[in-house]
Amino acid sequence: MDAIVQKKPSRAEAEAAVETLLRWIGDDTTREGLIDTPSRVAAAYGELFSGYGKSPEEVLGRTFEEVAGYEDIVLIKDINFFSHCEHHLVPIIGKAHIGYLPDRRVVGLSKLVRVVDMYARRLQTQEAMTAQIADAIETHLRPLGVAVVIEAEHMCMAMRGIRLQGSTTMTTTFRGSFKNDVNSQLRFMTMLRDSA
């Protein structure tokens, strides 16, 4: 089934929606501190959710074959990110760890950080984001294996509902050699832990 394509609202419509929410919570949108808030929120959303305007093809499109015979795990850990929960629109604050086993091709290390940033700057669940990052690397880099671990605190749990501060959720995705070979998976997790 094809996805429904919705017309993107104008900037003025977005600002009007923010003003409506401000009135709904009971504040006075004519007071000095809130007069420009709808405009500021629309601009902030443009930045916070800029991941929708990017694709994995752009980010991971350029790879390198010149690796001087390197054929072991490439690991980038502690990639800090901010995202937003798609259920409540509140922040998810965390860090991602990415490992891959090259198959004659590598990608610039900053590109892996950009992939995390691209998916983080969309409305997310942590589980989906973990899978999306792994899918993008697997599809565009075609490594022998991919491992993605995300640790994050969800403000939807800390600020509302159960109001539990400080708890961390961990999600993992293993593909290729990391999924099929327990020793590779263990080695990745050991590298992650030991370099802490």
Automatic annotation (TrEMBL):
Entry's Gene Ontology molecular function annotations: GTP binding; GTP cyclohydrolase I activity; zinc ion binding
Residues annotated to bind Zn(2+): 85, 88, 156
Entry GO terms, CC: cytoplasm
Enzyme class at the top of the EC tree: hydrolase
An annotated GO BP: tetrahydrobiopterin biosynthetic process
Enzyme Commission number, as recorded: 3.5.4.16
Associated pathway: Cofactor biosynthesis; 7,8-dihydroneopterin triphosphate biosynthesis; 7,8-dihydroneopterin triphosphate from GTP: step 1/1
Reactions the enzyme catalyzes: GTP + H2O = 7,8-dihydroneopterin 3'-triphosphate + formate + H(+)
InterPro entries: GTP-CH-I_C/QueF (IPR043133), GTP-CH-I_N (IPR043134), GTP_CycHdrlase_I (IPR001474), GTP_CycHdrlase_I_CS (IPR018234), GTP_CycHdrlase_I_dom (IPR020602)
A Pfam family reported for this protein in Swiss-Prot or TrEMBL: GTP_cyclohydroI
Entry keyword annotation includes Nucleotide-binding: yes
Keywords assigned by UniProt, alphabetized: GTP-binding, Hydrolase, Metal-binding, Nucleotide-binding, One-carbon metabolism, Zinc
Stretches assigned to the GTP cyclohydrolase I domain: 15-192
Family: Belongs to the GTP cyclohydrolase I family.
Quaternary structure note: Homopolymer. Toroid-shaped homodecamer, composed of two pentamers of five dimers.
Name used for this protein in its record: GTP cyclohydrolase 1
